[in-house]
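FW: tagging you since you asked about this chain on Friday. Here's the raw sequence from the shared folder, copied in full. Didn't touch anything.
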Amino acid sequence: MQRLLNFSPPELKISSQFNPDSDVVLFQGDCRELLATIPSGSMQLVVTSPPYNIGKPYERRLDLDDYLHQQAEVIHECVRTLTDRGSICWQVGNYVNDGEVVPLDIALYPIFKSLGLKLRNRIVWHFEHGLHCSRRLSGRHETILWFTKSDDYVFNLDAIRVPQKYPKKKYYKGPKVGQYSGHPLGKNPGDVWIIPNVKHNHVEKTCHPCQFPVELVERLVLSLTNEGDWILDPFIGVGSTAVAAVMHGRKAAGADIVAEYINIAQERVTLASEGKLKTRPMDKPVYTPPGNDGHRGELNGVHAEYGT
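HL: got it, structure written out here
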């Protein structure tokens, strides 16, 4: 099943430079140039998946110290743009050098802490597909560090609740005996998110080698912002953050040095605003492939055809 949005908001205002009257800002160039034009205290959420410094063709490989210094520059400016009730979510994997693994979330944590931010969750993003390793266990998760600027921060839990595992479970004793014990809107999704990464057969796939799944960003957008808020992605790639923002009535600003990615991002957010962009539905169960017994794949016990 693919999601096709069925609404058509007023024509989207997309600009290439920061403009508070725009709906989406897509800047082609170094994100530090864009950040310099964004007013302090104007962004409710910063969410990004920065280049991982692992030598992919679209990245300039740096040593770890240079990489962390570069990230510190960007993080400092991102924090400046946050509102007092704002959040910053930094999604990273591992830096691998000659077979040695350095977890980037641990390496980056002191930078955020030095800026006075408070860590609220270390979210684990679990996925089933990735590189196959022969001399260590294959990596099947990355992390999202969620920091807030203050103790008074936006958090809309009800917007991201997921179905209860036992929705008909009831209290068996006490003053609430016989009543349903779970929250009527579902349960807290927890800090381990099982969301497929964007591979070749994913409905959202573009030419970007490390594309953000829209549903991952949606959870952050819905829980950490309100309608009309600004969301910033300094490494916006092909625009998944902007897509999630537009889908839920928020505004987005982002940058990428690759012109092709910015062009794709503009096309995607335009389609999203017109209700024509296909995305994987948020909280769709993960597909279970057929077993050796010849049975067809299942989604949490329900028959389903393959497709993301």
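FW: Residues 64-81 form the longest helix (18 residues).
HL: agreed, and The helical segments are 31-35, 64-81, 104-114, 214-224, 240-247, 259-273.
FW: great, closing this out.
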